Amino acid sequence: xxxxxxxxxxxxxxxxxxxxxxDSSVTAxxxxxxxxxxxxxxxxxxxxxDLNWDTSQLPDLLAFLEEKNxxxxxxxHQGKIVEEHYFNSHNSTTPWYWASAGKxxxxxxxxxxxxxxxxxxxxxxxxxxxxxxxxxxxxKEALITNEHLLxxxxxxxxxxxxxxxxxxxxxxxxxxxxxxxxxxxxxLQDVIATASxxxxxxxxxxxxxxxxxxxxxxxxxxxxxxYWSTARSMARFGLLSLANGNWxxxxxxxxxxxxxxTHATQTINEAYGYLWWLxxxxxxxLPQTQYEFQGALIPNAPSDMFAALGKNDQKIxxxxxxxxxxxxxxxxxxxxxxxxxxxxxxxxxxxxxxxx
Length: 356
Known about the structure:
Layout: H1 4-14, H2 58-67, E1 70-77, E2 80-86, E3 96-97, H3 103-115, H4 126-129, H5 138-141, H6 146-151, H7 187-196, H8 200-209, E4 217-221, E5 224-229, H9 231-242, E6 246-247, E7 250-251, H10 255-261, E8 277-278, E9 283-284, E10 293-294, E11 306-310, E12 314-319, E13 324-330, H11 342-355
Antiparallel strand pairs: 1-2, 1-13, 3-5, 4-5, 6-7, 8-11, 9-10, 11-12, 12-13
């Protein structure tokens, strides 16, 4: 069964119904989006003054970023660079790790692979990897679909560490009944590699990386792959996501999949889509806890923002209503963290003073 958002949006796009929604996060990007050329590092710019931003607040923002161990910071408006800054011996050609912000790359490529007919989100993971890819009883393992991996609702035990070998993947609850942040999502990379009969890296490069002019590579670390690239490559992916998977007229990631990816398709953690964090929900859950928190994920950030959040404060913020993409790479701003940290809300306080 397809997620309800896909069914509703599909009907709307076909013109069968006149559809409306109270969801303020549904914002179509401008037709004026700029896309940098794929074969060049040139990138058009826009002055903050021309956007009527308060440039008197910029020094405070940059001082804060440097103080908080940042290495790269980029703001795009309608695809053009408004601000681009590097700190602490970093520069525009230096690669840095995405950490869990790279989960969204896996999500995007999963959508591409489904559109190409290689995989089905509703199919069992074991249809591709065979039985025994977990240590769960066979009937429980058979409940886990590709979509459950995208949603973090596999039901596997998240208290056993980050490993993804069968011995690390043990049954805790039926798939779809529990949200838990876990590296088991990387099994989607194995699913796609098996279905495409290519290595994950090769399929990723052809399906996404080269099509939007990204640099970078997947490097193995602690039993799973981590993406490394320049900040501008991270910004390219953020721009693709702002444009609902379209790159300068080429629909690379299916638009309906992007809609589902950036909206909750499960009700356990409404602040989580397909490996994207969502700011517009009234409740949220965090890694390593089953507690449901009330309020917005990042209170100071726009309610329609969706974000790729990686360990030690790797950030991609996408704000459709303002046509913004904001990138931050660096060391942990304060203490090590899984994804979300106090830094997000503090940074948005500074950003609001500058942008608004």
